[in-house]
Design a protein that fits this description.
By secondary structure, this protein is an all-beta fold. Helices cover 0% and strands 64% of the residues. The protein has a single domain, classed as Lipocalin (Beta Barrel), CATH 2.40.128.20.
């Protein structure tokens, strides 16, 4: 049995943290919202992630599909308008959930992991790199938005 609420229980997760972009000298604050949809008939979980970086007008949207889910692993597909579609592999451990992408043909690689603090709170870390040597590091936390609460 999978012991994580994040990704595997439908609902909304909110988050915040710091993003470091190699093209910008200082770190930037970011806010995120994950919408986790119910598992479909094929056992796939679709998530929509919005990321707003403070000081930037565009909201980045990622669509994740988690598939071939077993208690310790899964496959993941991410769609992003700037990068395109990338495939990756994920792992599930009692204390964390994470995934990595290695699309050498596209020149994109990276990883994210979410360390469980409680059922409703995770600390996260991610690092990504592109062929043109743009690098991104992300540190933050996400929490489950309880029903009845209004988004901030």
């Amino acid at each position: 049995m999978i012991s994580h609420e994040f990704i595997f229980t439908p609902g909304v997760w909110l988050g915040e943290g710091t993003i470091f972009l190699s093209m910008v000298k200082e770190s930037l604050a970011f806010f995120t919202r994950w919408r986790v949809l119910p598992k479909d008939d094929q056992g796939q979980v679709v998530c929509l992630q919005e990321i707003q970086v403070k000081g930037l007008s565009d909201v980045m949207v990622n669509r994740f599909v988690f598939l071939d889910i077993v208690p310790t692993a899964f496959h993941i597909v991410m769609d992003n308008h700037a990068i395109g579609r990338v495939n990756g592999l994920g792992i599930i451990r009692s204390e964390m959930i994470g995934w990595e992408f290695r699309e050498q043909e596209m020149g994109f690689e990276g990883f994210e992991f979410y360390e469980k603090q409680s059922d409703d709170l995770y600390h996260m870390h991610g690092e990504f790199a592109t062929l043109d040597d743009l690098r991104t590091q992300v540190h933050g936390k996400i929490w489950h938005q309880k029903e009845g609460k209004v988004d901030a």
